[in-house]
Backbone:
């Protein structure tokens, strides 16, 4: 089988035989990444596999959400660093109305904080972008059967709670004690969003965002927005 690294500047573009026969049970895959060359390379390689076919592409988070809602793919390969709406939030918004869609997240980061956020958002697989193409296929096969896949290089970065996609409670860091919504608010604060912008993005009231902000500050022991931003950068929670 032909292989390719997932690094953006090393993506391999192959010529696809569109007439190649697909299995009747082939999984429909959508690729969400802001680099055209990576999308082209992944699409060509995925379409060569008899059990998968690429049915759509998206270049940013908003487009990924819209396309997933329209086409209902079986699996979305999601870059977490998407522009407009980042891949973590896009994952949440795709999974909310369509929990049956499996998300395979691609990231440059192997930190526990990133793994935590992605799994809590609803992803079933987490791969590093320097993984080999064969590993992506393994992940696609695994999530296609209802399983969960983590790149071997990051399996020591997080311990999965049984059946929940959450990290085990033992030895939690401050960030891991935050609720899913608090993590969302914290990340948006680090992304430079105002309270009104956060409220609009999450479709909640300004008062609710202010309450979350206070709870975050209390849990982390940080009293300023600048301090929260520095904390996010240090812990790998910011997508800037």
Residues:
């Amino acid at each position: 089988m032909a292989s390719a690294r997932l690094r953006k500047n090393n993506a391999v573009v192959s010529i696809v035989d569109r007439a190649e026969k697909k299995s009747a049970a082939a999984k429909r895959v959508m690729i969400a990444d802001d680099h055209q060359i990576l999308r082209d390379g992944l699409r060509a390689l995925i379409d060569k596999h008899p059990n998968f076919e690429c049915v759509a592409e998206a270049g940013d988070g908003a487009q990924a959400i819209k396309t997933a809602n329209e086409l209902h793919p079986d699996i979305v390969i999601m870059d977490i660093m998407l522009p407009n709406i980042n891949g973590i939030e896009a994952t949440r918004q795709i999974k909310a109305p369509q929990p049956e869609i499996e998300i395979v997240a691609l990231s440059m980061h192997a930190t526990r904080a990133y793994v935590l956020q992605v799994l809590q958002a609803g992803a079933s697989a987490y791969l590093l972008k320097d993984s080999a193409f064969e590993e992506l296929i393994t992940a696609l096969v695994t999530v296609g059967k209802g399983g969960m896949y983590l790149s071997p290089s990051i399996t020591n970065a997080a311990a999965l709670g049984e059946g929940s996609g959450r990290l085990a409670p033992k030895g939690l860091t401050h960030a891991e004690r935050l609720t899913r919504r608090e993590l969302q608010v914290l990340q948006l604060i680090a992304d430079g969003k105002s309270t009104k912008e956060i409220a609009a993005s999450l479709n909640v009231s300004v008062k609710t965002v202010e309450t979350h902000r206070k709870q975050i500050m209390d849990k982390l022991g940080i009293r300023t927005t600048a301090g929260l931003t520095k904390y996010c950068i240090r812990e790998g929670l910011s997508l800037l």
The longest strand covers residues 52-58. The two ends are 36 Å apart (CA to CA). The first helix runs from residue 36 to 48. The CA atoms of residues 72 and 98 lie 8 Å apart.
